[in-house]
Amino acid sequence: MTALSPQNHALAKLRANEPVKLYVTGNFATPRHIDFICRSGVFDAIWLDLEHFDLSTQDVAVLNLVARAFPVTMIARFKAADYQTVMRILETGVGGIMCSMVNSAEEARQIVQWAKFNNPNPAPGEVTGARGWNGGNIDGAYATLPALEYIRHQNTQTMIICQIETEAAVAEAAAIAAVPGVDGLFFGPGDYSVAVGRPGQIDHELVRAGMARVAEAAAAAGKWWGTVAVGPAMWERVRGLGARLISPGGDIKVMQYGIRELAKTFGGVPAVSTTPPPAPGGARLGY
Prior knowledge:
CATH class: Alpha Beta
Strand content: 5-15%
Helix content: 25-40%
Mean pLDDT: 92
CATH architecture: Alpha-Beta Barrel
Number of helices: 12
Distance between the termini: 36 Å
Order of helices and strands: HEHEHEHEHHEHHEHHEHEH
Low-confidence stretches: 274-282
Number of domains: 1
CATH topology: TIM Barrel
Largest sheet: 8 strands, parallel, barrel
CATH superfamily: Phosphoenolpyruvate-binding domains
């Protein structure tokens, strides 16, 4: 691997069974915000939310270039419903894609086919696919990488994460995790809480049960998994279940907590809240 093919730092930690701290942004996804978070030294990876926010491929490319100045891995989350979207996001040079609402092994296999290149001489364990060739974009260092080096780097250093967010997905989690080329699973407690009729209660016993099944499925396939964990207690609990890729939230929480901290200056003047308190049995998700 040459200097033009940067190591995926987050993936290296995950493969070494180390936790990866994941920050999420969408509302305030700007170059300066990315730079600010990377300079904090707190996070190993940034989850760029393209599912809920309309960020162009060019936006993703610029934000990723900022993150690449640091040992921070950019992970783009979106619905991987077509080949062109998957291919274009990967060509921005992101370190991974987090594919939302994956409900079956068939979906996961299709994503792998879109995301992986055919390699006539694959390395041991390298999964191949049918991704279209370009090589002249950011991920290929603008056509300066040898073809096979570029292919192998993309096939082995770019992670594919399948999000498990519904009851159907939990039921299929073992089959999804077992798909070659899927690096890990990510349990979405927010969407799952809605699916099981407990909106926002991300620490409810029904959500915990779904999370436990995802943890078991990942372990059985020899894959890592991750989730959202709000606060130290939940962090310790999900770590106890084996989670490695863990997000405490992101830009909205930073803004909300920051506003409340500033409001302390005014003594008895309470901070303004536009959201209700958490429902019993669960922590409010709010990124």
